[in-house]
Sequence to fold (135 residues):
Amino acid sequence: MAVAPALARGRRAAEQLMVDRCVIRRRTGESTDDDGTITPTWETVYPLPGGVGRCRLRQPTALPRTDDDGQGVLLMLRRELQLPASAVGVRADDTVTVTASRHDPDAVGRSFVVRGLHHASQATMRRLQVEERTS
Fold:
């Protein structure tokens, strides 16, 4: 079997499951207003201009963990964000925001932090480990 045609079919099939939409941004710095208010500045890394931001959010395990940030206990929920294999440039600590969800309207507006990356030469999709912080 030729790998390239099989991989292309697998990638098309994976993308058909990605009916949600998201945007991934990276903090690039901050700006200070005249009144001293500090505002973070962001760069969009996914989707690329003109893209639609296809994604699929999954929760492989329902076991949360707690984390003490010094100010209180946070509930940390691990999830997997699936992107097309063609999505490149995402890094750990980038921020993901779900902008649309066909099957889970409760997911819209939720934000996650990229914690784990996925690189494979013959993957049908890019799987990122993301974490949502809730108090």
Residues 3-16 form the longest helix (14 residues). The chain has one helix and eight strands. Helices lie at 3-16.
